Amino acid sequence: xxxxxxxxxxxxxxxxxxxxxxxxxxxxxxxxxxxxxxxxxxxxxxxxxxxxxxxxxxxxxxxxxxxxxxxxxxxxxxxxxxxxxxxxxxxxxxxxxxxxxxxxxxxxxxxxxxxxxxxxxxxxxxxxxxxxxxxxxxxxxxxxxxxxxxxxxxxxxxxxxxxxxxxxxxxxxxxxxxxxxxxxxxxxxxxxxxxxxxxxxxxxxxxxxxxxxxxxxxxxxxxxxxxxxxxxxxxxxxxxxxxxxxxxxxxxxxxxxxxxxxxxxxxxxxxxxxxxxxxxxxxxxxxxxxxxxxxxxxxxxxxxxxxxxxxxxxxxxxxxxxxx
Length: 324
Fold this sequence. Notes:
Largest sheet: 2 strands, antiparallel
Order of helices and strands: EEHHHHHHHHEEHH
Radius of gyration: 22 Å
Strand order of the largest sheet: 1-2
Number of domains: 1
Shape: elongated
Mean pLDDT: 86
């Protein structure tokens, strides 16, 4: 599949960007539904989307630039080619690190909420569980770009590189085989690409994220009144980081620190810290005595919520969430 949809001079519209932005819009739509249930104006969600896209892309790019992946396209490369750090127009949105994106996006949410005098944790609870659906679609961008796949495999669902388009070259790429994307590939090169498959790690993570998105939506809908404000963020961190930890085992190109990939260290720390915080925050807290502190407003069980702010809350808006 051609990763470029259309080219206009030096600029190109890429499928990767479409999947990223499309996933973010879908996540914002679901987050807007939570906001309506909680009596908040969903327009804040759409405003946050613009802020978090900018912050997320900057954070994700910085994570990639200062990384040291096995393919060498990290700090060792960018310190010699600094203009390539912002070279998004050549090859699309290539080279983004998800944990940097989460940090940048979270900072953007915090700044927006502080500027508009909104409860940050409340809006993070609206957004965080739905980031999983955005990440699901985002991984299809890796599929189109033919990147971030795993080691060789003969499994029936193996990913096969289409040599007609650019790709991330696999480790131990054999001598004598032409790189993907080059014109006039010889028969030996075409045969090699056709007979060598790889683990589709982007699909592994996409399926995990989709399953976790459904699970968290079910948990919030069924047990929202028993969850405390902030639990939406913690549950997201546990769900996503757990999947990312095992998916990284299939990534030969990963940025490694010690015996594990850097993303695995971050994932492990995220799960451990989130579980501890979840347990500590629920110790001595009663959802029956403090329903206003629960996530019941996200599931429709609690209608009056103390958001911890002093300003007067407006009446819940009547909003049609249909997308045309």
